[in-house]
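Support request from a user on the community tier.

User writes: "When I paste my structure tokens into the form, the page sometimes reloads and wipes my input. The last time it worked, I copied everything first. Here is what I submitted, just in case something in the input itself triggers the reload:"
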């Protein structure tokens, strides 16, 4: 089943990559350039909290908009309805606040889990995988969506975790090995960081596509959410 979900997700991503990129890149490109330049300018000996918080603050502003837009785009494809990119972005803005609250709340819980024992963080990540869809499609509150996802994703925990691990290895490994060819702190490395972060902002959508594929299966199979 995991293989089927992964292949289906890759097939969808591959067929719709142009539209996905058109949704993501106009928002992510300036963000990735600004944050990469900012992070590369940090003096580790004079590091202050603001240096760490600025990228997170900017990310919390822009990530929900294009992620929401991508989710509604996937839904429109599945339901055979057409939606233009401006409409999808407007939906991203409409649901920005509740999605941001969900992202921050789940992010804090997952981070604490990862810091403490790692495994709890991974479990939280998988069990909250359906929350964005419940929040957007059923217009539940962020915390209700998280609670609903916690129960609904229980039977799919290992499938979701397995998919995330496979996607992580496939997506990030090439960038890691290529980065070893450059000298840390060099201009070439900076350019590579900017380009790779921009590309990864699109490839990162694979996690959402995979989660949505499992969510649709779970919804149709068990009539959940």
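"...and here is what came back when it finally went through:"
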């Amino acid at each position: 089943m995991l293989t089927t979900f992964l292949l289906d997700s890759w097939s969808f991503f591959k067929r719709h990559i142009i539209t996905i990129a058109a949704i993501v890149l106009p928002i992510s490109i300036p963000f990735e350039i600004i944050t990469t330049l900012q992070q590369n300018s940090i003096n580790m000996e004079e590091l202050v909290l603001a240096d760490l918080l600025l990228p997170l603050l900017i990310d919390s502003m822009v990530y929900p908009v294009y992620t929401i837009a991508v989710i509604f785009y996937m839904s429109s494809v599945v339901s055979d309805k057409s939606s233009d990119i401006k409409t999808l972005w407007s939906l991203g803005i409409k649901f920005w606040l509740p999605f941001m609250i969900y992202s921050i709340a789940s992010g804090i819980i997952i981070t604490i889990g990862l810091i403490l024992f790692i495994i709890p963080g991974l479990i939280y990540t998988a069990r909250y995988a359906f929350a964005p869809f419940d929040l957007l499609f059923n217009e539940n509150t962020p915390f209700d969506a998280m609670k609903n996802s916690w129960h609904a994703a229980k039977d799919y925990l290992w499938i979701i975790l397995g998919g995330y691990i496979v996607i992580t290895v496939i997506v990030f490994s090439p960038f890691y090995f290529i980065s070893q060819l450059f000298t840390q702190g060099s201009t070439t490395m900076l350019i590579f960081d900017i380009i790779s972060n921009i590309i990864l902002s699109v490839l990162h959508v694979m996690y959402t596509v995979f989660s949505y594929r499992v969510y649709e299966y779970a919804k149709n199979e068990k009539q959940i959410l």
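Agent notes: The reload is a front-end session timeout and is unrelated to the input. The first helix runs from residue 2 to 15. The CA atoms of residues 113 and 121 lie 4 Å apart. Escalated to web team.
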